[in-house]
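Fold this sequence, please.
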Amino acid sequence: MIKRTLVFASVLLCAVSLNSSSAVSLNLSPARAALLQPAETVAARLARKVTIRRDTYGIPHILAKSEESAAFGLGYAQAEDHCLTIVRRFIAARGEAAKYLGQGVESDFLMKRFDNLEVSIQNFGQLDPLLQRIFNAYASGVNHYVSKHRQELPGWIPVFDGVDVLANSRSGAVNSAIDAGSIRALKAKYPDNTQPQASPSGSDVEQQNQSLIAETELPGSNAFALSGSRTISGKPILLGNPHLNWSSLYWEAQVTVPGKINFFGSTLAGIPVLRAGFNEHLGWVTTNNNPDQEDIYALALDPNKPDHYIFDLQSLPFKKKEVTVEIKTADGSL
């Protein structure tokens, strides 16, 4: 077990039938348990309402009676293809990668410092009720797959719920806000004044500024929409060109809820909805942009009180918070 003390002034954040008698047991805190019905009831109820068929390319086609049961089937089908990846992403979002895997300590400290799991627990109830059910059902689908394949999977895999799905989504924002490039840029802009440094020339300053801009550029992507008047076929064309690595694990599926949803598209492992695709009426894709949404301020320390900082001409105390991360050692102990 490792403990670290964090001192801060404020937090900146900008055909397969799934019906089965298999049961999943939960061991959750009262706050999280209150978000769910008993897992065995959820799995049994949702499994009766969804069928998964895979075509000759292995792509799952999920036919469900409700959005909730569709999310259950989507979670189960994703777990069939990428179970361990989903599990790793969920435990990393909890700040527990080192607890289960013995690695990922720095990521765990980042998630703990920004209370990723705790904030997700607090805010889960503010989601739209249907979205809450979708998140819980997706997690239940993953749990159901694990329960049916316990002999083939590591025994340490925990039970997940909708909060884990939300925490996984939020962890991306935390990682983006505190990425290595931004930290390097801040250190370059606000160097350690205790070390004597030569004054940079004008060209050096310009080169440094260009380097900082390059380091803080966010990942991008492209999307193009072509009118039918501009295509040989006369049909409109929508092109999505995301710039994520192949290791991001794009995952393709069709989700159908008669009278509500009929969508064929893609998403990433661990995400409970399809993010891009098409149906009989439209094509849909998203792309990144890079808006300036955050400002970072350097606050001076109080020269007379090392545990205080100056804000609006007032000396204010730092808040201290101890963050604990558990680490699995080579002999299996924590």
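Residues 48 and 205 are 65 Å apart (CA to CA). The chain has a mean pLDDT of 83.
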